[in-house]
Structure formats: structure tokens, C-alpha cells
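Whiteboard transcription, Tuesday session. T.W. wrote the C-alpha cells on the left side:
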């Protein structure tokens, strides 16, 4: 065999890998849909290939929660949780809660997924839990049993408490062996997280086959009517995100708290927003977000130096809206009515799991797997949502980055860490008040 012949498979594989994974999955989604429409129920023979993809995602849920949450807790050291840190974390939690509530509200209002009866999977939960059962279920009687049994909220609670306790001990101790042991433990967590990312990469590579098989089998059984519902899903999520950005970020935070023009804020954040929409990564956008904060929004480094990197890790407002709507979408497709207890469970899971989603390839699909699993809905819905993930990911990431800058601006206002007479604030003031040096609440 000649060298040229030997290198052909490698060149082909390299060219294939050069295409972003999410676009390969999108193509698989389209091809699987086409095959299902043509072959009909015969395409169900591919179901085992799709089921394998879902099992691989399920396999990763608990390890990812444990490792990524512990890694995130390391950043929340007591020394950083002063006034700036406390306000930043509080605002991130508040905006994520508001985002999840908006997601549930628009989902209940528009009811996406009701037009098609989905028979690709069945709900695992016969009766919705009460609110008290959800709250008590967060604290497990046996932490290890909770992890083994896949109890999501209980696992998240245990990991957060343990992680914060470790950081407190690390900050307060003067004993070198203890410091070294905790540093070594977190180094192990970092290494384990990187290893898990490699596993996730492999699972997402297989996801091209998995999504193709899931869609072929599902469309062969359900028909093309299910695809129409994806347009409704994208539309409802977009409505939720627009509401959140307009009301929460621009209305309450920019106008209400900062007393500034929303257009000035958007002008200052536009580089980060465009970058986020382009690359679909809050972490990847971070250098641009920091530049916008310092140069355009005139936020002090003492504020954005902590808040923006943390926000790229835990502030997932766009994902909160996206997942809340998708859970209602999934419930409607299988004919399950989510009661108050179920919706409280969705809300709590969305808020808590957002801490550990950053930096994970295919994070949106894995997060959705976690939440569907928590409320007992069929994981086959993941195959549907994967097809529109490129669109949803761009919209959600743009929302996340905008929220990071809005929170940093508000924290700067409350801690005297922002100069509202310079940068875009001054530009906005001049454009709206003919040369005034400072924008006012009426701009």
C-alpha cells in the first residue's frame, strides 16, 4: 500500500474532525429524520444505537456533578466571599432563579410539544412529588446511596456542602499537612475533571451515530409532525430569553439600579455578545467579556476579576430558561402534566446544576439529561433537542454573557467599583443629552 493510500483514511478522519461536533450532530439529525420519514417503522431497528448514546449520557451524570461542582466550589473561598463576592454570588443565584421562573412561565403559557403524542419513551414517575417531598429529598439520609441511586438534587447538595467545607478548612487552617492534603485533593479533582471531559468528548463523537439512530427510529414511529414541534420549542425559548434580557438585565438592572440607558449598556457589551453568539462558549468569550467590562463599561478589576470568571462557570441564565422550557416540552410530548411539586423540582434542579455545567462539551445535552432524569421523563427527548442545539446554544450563551456583565455592573455600582462618567456611559449621556457628562435615569 502506498503512503498516499495509507494517509487517505487519516486525512478523511482529520477533515471530519475539523467540523465542529455540534454541526456534525445537526447533520446526523437531518439525515436520521430523512431516513425515518422514508423507511417508516422499519427504522426502529436502529433503536439500540440510540439507546447506547442515552446510556452513555446517563453514565456521566453523577461523575460530572461530583467533579465539576467540587471544582466550582474551590473558587468560592471565604476570602473571596467578601462584599463583592457575596453580592456577585447572590445576584447570580437571583438572576438564575428568575430565568428559570420565566422559562417555566412561558412554557406553561405556550405549551410546546402538545400537538404530537410521543411514544418513543415513557415517564418513569407515576405521581408528582409534593413540595415538601422535594425539599426533604434534597437532604439525603445516606449520601453514598443517593449517588448510587442517581438522586440528583441530593447529590448536588452533598457535593456543595462538602466542597464549601473543604475551602473553609483550607482558608482557616495553619497546619501545612492539611493544606497540602486539600490542595492535593483539589488537584485530583481537576485531573479527574479533565479526564471526564475526554470521556464526554468520546461520547459526543459517538453522539453523531446516536442522534442519527434516535431520530430515524423516532420519526419512523412518530412521523414528521414531531419536527414541527422543534420550531415551537426554539420560539418559546427565544421568547423567554428576550423577556429575561429586556426586563431583568436592561429594565431592572440597567435602568432601575444603575440609572443608565439600556442602549449604553448594550453598546458596551456588544463585542462580548457577538462573540458569545459566534462561538457558543461563555468561557471562550471571557477575554472579550473582560475587555468590555474594563474598557467600555468602566468596571473596576476588583469587581470583574472575580465576578466574570465565576459567571462564566456558574451563571447559566440562558441554560436555565432553555432547560425549563424543554422539560415542559418533553412532558407535553409524552402526555404528562407537571404538577407544582414537579415544577419546584425542575426549578431547584436547574438552579443547582447550573453551577457545574460550564466548560463541558455538549453541556446542554448533559444538563438536559440530568433534569429529565430528575423528574422521570424519557431521555429520548435528548435526541430531538440535539438537532436544534446549535441555535439554542448560541442564544443561551449570548444571554449568559450579557448577564455576567449586567451583574458585574450592578455590583460595581453597589461597591463603588464602576465609573459611570466614562466609557459608554459618557457616550450614551452625550448622545441623549447633547454633551452632558453623565447619563441619568431618564435617558
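and on the right, the sequence the group agreed on:
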Amino acid at each position: 500500500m502506498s503512503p498516499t493510500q495509507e494517509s487517505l483514511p487519516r486525512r478523511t478522519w482529520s477533515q471530519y474532525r475539523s467540523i465542529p461536533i455540534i454541526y456534525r450532530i445537526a447533520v446526523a439529525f437531518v439525515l436520521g429524520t430523512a431516513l425515518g420519514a422514508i423507511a417508516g417503522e422499519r427504522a426502529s431497528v436502529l433503536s439500540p444505537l440510540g439507546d447506547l448514546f442515552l446510556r452513555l449520557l446517563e453514565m456521566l451524570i453523577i461523575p460530572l456533578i461530583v467533579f465539576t461542582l467540587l471544582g466550582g466550589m474551590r473558587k468560592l473561598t471565604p476570602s473571596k466571599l467578601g462584599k463583592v463576592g457575596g453580592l456577585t454570588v447572590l445576584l447570580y443565584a437571583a438572576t438564575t432563579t428568575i430565568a428559570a421562573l420565566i422559562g417555566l412561565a412561558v412554557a406553561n403559557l405556550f405549551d410546546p410539544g402538545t400537538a404530537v403524542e410521543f411514544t418513543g419513551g415513557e415517564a418513569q414517575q407515576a405521581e408528582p412529588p409534593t413540595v415538601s417531598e422535594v425539599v426533604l429529598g434534597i437532604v439525603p439520609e445516606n449520601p453514598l446511596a443517593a449517588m448510587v441511586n442517581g438522586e440528583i438534587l441530593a447529590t448536588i447538595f452533598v457535593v456543595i456542602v462538602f466542597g464549601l467545607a473543604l475551602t473553609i478548612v483550607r482558608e482557616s487552617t495553619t497546619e501545612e499537612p492539611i493544606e497540602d492534603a486539600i490542595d492535593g485533593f483539589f488537584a485530583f479533582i481537576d485531573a479527574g475533571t479533565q479526564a471526564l471531559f475526554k470521556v464526554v468528548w468520546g461520547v459526543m463523537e459517538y453522539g453523531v451515530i446516536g442522534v442519527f439512530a434516535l431520530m430515524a427510529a423516532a420519526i419512523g414511529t412518530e412521523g414528521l409532525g414531531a419536527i414541527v414541534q422543534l420550531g415551537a420549542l426554539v420560539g418559546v425559548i427565544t421568547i423567554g430569553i428576550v423577556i429575561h434580557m429586556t426586563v431583568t438585565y436592561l429594565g431592572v438592572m440597567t435602568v432601575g439600579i444603575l440609572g443608565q440607558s439600556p442602549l449604553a449598556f448594550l453598546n458596551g457589551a456588544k463585542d462580548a455578545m457577538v462573540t458569545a453568539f459566534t462561538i457558543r462558549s461563555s468561557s471562550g468569550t471571557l477575554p472579550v467579556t473582560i475587555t468590555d467590562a474594563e474598557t467600555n463599561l468602566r468596571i473596576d478589576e476588583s469587581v470583574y476579576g472575580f465576578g466574570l470568571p465565576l459567571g462564566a462557570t456558574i451563571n447559566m441564565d440562558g441554560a436555565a430558561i432553555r432547560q425549563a422550557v424543554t422539560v415542559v416540552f418533553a412532558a407535553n410530548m409524552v402526555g404528562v402534566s407537571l404538577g407544582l411539586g414537579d415544577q419546584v423540582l425542575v426549578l431547584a434542579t436547574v438552579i443547582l446544576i447550573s453551577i457545574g455545567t460550564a466548560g463541558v462539551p455538549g453541556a446542554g445535552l448533559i444538563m438536559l439529561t440530568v433534569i429529565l432524569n430528575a423528574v422521570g421523563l424519557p431521555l429520548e427527548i435528548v435526541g430531538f433537542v440535539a438537532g436544534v442545539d446549535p441555535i439554542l446554544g448560541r442564544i443561551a450563551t449570548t444571554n449568559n454573557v450579557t448577564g455576567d456583565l449586567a451583574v458585574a455592573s450592578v455590583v460595581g455600582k453597589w461597591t463603588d467599583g464602576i465609573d459611570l462618567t466614562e466609557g459608554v456611559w459618557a457616550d450614551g449621556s452625550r448622545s441623549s443629552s447633547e454633551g452632558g457628562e453623565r447619563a441619568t435615569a431618564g435617558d
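Someone added at the bottom: The domain at 21-427 is CATH 1.10.3860.10 (Proton glutamate symport protein).
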